[in-house]
Amino acid sequence: MVYHLIYNPTCRSGSHSYHVVETLVDYALKKGIKIIIHETKYKKHATKIVNELTTDIKTEVKIISFGGDGTLHEVLNGIVDFEKTTLAILPLGSGNDFARYWGIDLNVTPTTMLDQIITQYKPKRIDYLLINDSLRVINSVNLGMSASVIKFMEKLKHFKPRLKYLIATFCKCVFYKNFNYLISFDKKPFIKVISPSITFCNGPYFGCGMLIAPGAEANDGIIKTSIIHKFNRLATLRILMRLKKNKINLERCYHDINSKEADVVFAKNDIQADGQLFYDYDHLNIKIVTKKLRMLLPTWRIKNKND
Predict the structure, then answer these.
(1) Is residue 149 part of a domain?
(2) Residue range(s) defining the domain that contains residue 21
(3) What's the whole-model pTM score?
């Protein structure tokens, strides 16, 4: 059995990540399993690697995304043959929000994670989002505040990921800006929305474990759109605490909408998708691609998700 490990050396484990890779390879060899290492060298390199691995293939290709949500995003966008490709996550990034949703234990060693992938995980078909018929998104895409939060986080070098996200979000909430959007769900008439933050979700978490879309499931064929409407700046701290405690749905400024497709028009701005920044968009068409991606996932969570 062969696994292709797409390895991002800039993920959270930093300078220790290469040692981790060596340990994983040694462990796999003892189990009679071959791991082929593909180290990414630049942005979107993982997409190129996976594109080559999954083009004109005759037998199943098993790929492990070793990094965070951004690495997983790039891997997903490289898949050509979905029928013969199986994807697994070895989450060692900063956010790991999609792995968290599936109940993958983020506190065990990478070797234990690999052992679970090999011996315990089972294949399951799940959904992903398709943006403007070209960009695939595994977890969520955000308009408004999130892009500026990601930019601000890059300046906070000496904090843990979740605390870094809270600090950046607080700073941007205090000085937040509302944006005007025209949104249509399932081809219904457009409605005007004034909001600092709109998130189209496949999975329920963002921002290092904050529950932005309660009830979102990654295999139910539904996009859950979470909208935070204009709020009083004095409520900033309360809203952040609700996010931190996974109770944002208790806020009056919050509501969500379920759909299979969404269209949104706005003044040219940046967007954030799976923790990655994308620049100069002025409209999005978001579709749900149902149960096309085959992933190896924990059996103890699969039975609790939709079939």
Answers:
(1) yes
(2) 2-120
(3) 0.91
One-letter amino acid at 238 equals R
The values of phi and psi at residue 110, to 5°, are -55, -35
- Residue 211 sits in a domain of what CATH number? 2.60.200.40
Whether residue 212 is found in the same domain as residue 91: no
pLDDT tens per residue, range 183-217 = 999 999 999 999 989 999 999 998 778 899 999 99
Give the count of beta carbons closer than 10 Å to the beta carbon of residue 111.
14
The 10 Å Cβ neighbour count of residue 237 is 12
**187 within some domain:** yes
List Cα–Cα distances, 251 to 19, 173, 194, 203, 234, in angstroms: 45, 15, 16, 20, 14
Nearest-5° Cα angle at 217, 212 to 221 = 125
For 146-188, the pLDDT digits (tens) are 777 777 777 776 776 667 777 777 777 667 778 999 999 999 9
Asked whether residue 80 is domain-assigned, the answer is yes
